[in-house]
Design a protein that fits this description.
Elements lengths: L5 E2 L23 E8 L3 E9 L10 H5 L2 E3 L2 E5 L5 E4 L1 H14 L7 H14 L11 E10 L12 E10 L10 E6 L16 H6 L1 H9 L4 E5 L7 E4 L3 E6 L2 E4 L10 H12 L3 E4 L4 H9 L3 E8 L3 E10 L2 E4 L7 H14 L10 E3 L1
Parallel strand pairs: 1-3, 9-10, 9-16, 13-14
Antiparallel strand pairs: 2-3, 2-8, 4-7, 5-6, 5-7, 6-18, 7-8, 10-11, 12-13, 12-15, 15-16, 16-17
């Protein structure tokens, strides 16, 4: 049975920003959703409240031991005016997988989806119009029990906040320069790399800042053991086209199984592209650049959708990929996913949930 959500509406709605001024994640809507967990009652008390600060005890477990997970998905306004969530079931399933890894009680998927639909439905006037714009949805679970012992918490807070966002690349899709990271490791086998938890992002900050200082947009992570195998780019999954074959690293417990990655692979298979998921050595990538068989490279993720790579920095050398231009498969994937999200083509996969 789905518990009725209590809604406490904000007394004075905030003005909506112009879609052309939107960045990423710095504007928030009028309301947020919250629910509580206890061992006796499970997940209860779903409620919509005006957006505002959370009240957490200074000893809350998440603040000391990082027991928290989150997700990131989007709602889009189609050309028909209808608002739709993109693959929310897959994002909620991944949230539960992350929760399991961090000993956090799972959400009922049907219940959680109903909560998301209710919140986005209330805030649908915040969903911007235009290709690439969206309402970013951030579900989060944090351990709220106040204690300083090291064990899984007994109480948790689930909350969802919403942020209207512009296109990830405001000037249009363009290639980025990335640097191979050999010194730092973001995740290791057996760790929490495949869980969407804050520590994974904190672990990447220093390497990313150093890459920025050297003139690169992102870091290409290698595996934490041998520093030989390609892992992911920034917080995106990575794909390469060598010859006529698209390669992407096999899923492992060191990086996030992307929903956009899965969507892109589905489309590539449907288009008859030869796709292989397997370990990819960085030396193989550099050799393909030398032989001019690396035709394109791109990252996939919720924020950027598809982000082309035009330059790869490795051991002091900067290698240009495809003349720095966006590849044909990269462009086709970006256009196809944006078209589905904004309903300019039919959703034949059942990926969208109307609000």
């Amino acid at each position: 049975m789905i518990e009725t959500i209590r809604a406490n509406r904000a007394p004075a709605p905030k003005p909506k920003p112009d879609a052309s001024t939107l960045g990423f994640g710095d504007v928030f809507t009028d309301h947020m959703l919250l629910a509580d967990y206890s061992p006796e009652r499970g997940w209860t008390n779903p409620r919509i409240e005006p957006y505002g600060p959370l009240v957490l005890d200074p000893a809350a477990a998440v603040l000391h031991y990082g027991q928290g997970v989150f997700e990131g998905l989007k709602a889009f306004r189609g050309v028909d005016g209808q608002v739709r969530l993109f693959r929310p079931q897959q994002h909620l399933a991944r949230l539960n997988r992350s929760a399991h890894r961090l000993c956090i009680p799972p959400l009922d998927p049907e219940l959680a989806l109903a909560w998301l639909v209710d919140l986005v439905g209330l805030e649908q006037d915040w969903v911007p119009e235009g290709p690439g714009t969206a309402l970013y949805v951030r579900p989060t679970i944090v351990a709220s029990e106040p204690f300083l012992g090291v064990r899984p918490a007994e109480t948790y807070l689930f909350f969802v906040i919403l942020s209207p966002v512009g296109t990830y690349q405001p000037s249009g899709i363009h290639s980025m320069a990335i640097r191979v990271e050999e010194r730092y490791a973001r995740a290791v086998a057996g760790g929490v790399g495949a869980a969407k938890t804050g520590g994974n992002y904190a672990a990447g900050l220093l390497a990313t800042e150093e890459a920025h200082a050297a003139g690169f947009s992102q870091v290409l992570w290698l595996d934490g053991a041998s520093r030989q195998l390609v892992d992911e780019v920034g917080m995106m999954n990575i794909m390469l086209r060598i010859g006529d074959q698209v390669l992407t690293p096999s899923l492992s417990d060191t990086f996030l199984p992307g929903v956009t990655r899965d969507s892109a692979l589905t489309l590539l298979h449907e288009w008859g592209v030869d796709v292989v998921e397997r370990p990819i050595a960085i030396d193989e990538v550099v050799e393909a650049i030398r032989l001019r068989t690396l035709r394109e490279m791109w990252g996939t993720g919720t924020a950027a959708v598809v982000a082309p790579v035009g330059e790869l920095g490795y051991r002091g050398e900067r290698h240009i990929i495809n003349g720095g231009e966006i590849g044909t498969v990269t462009h086709r994937l970006y256009d196809a996913l944006i078209a589905i999200q904004h309903a300019t083509v039919p959703d034949t996969h059942g990926w969208t949930v109307p609000i």
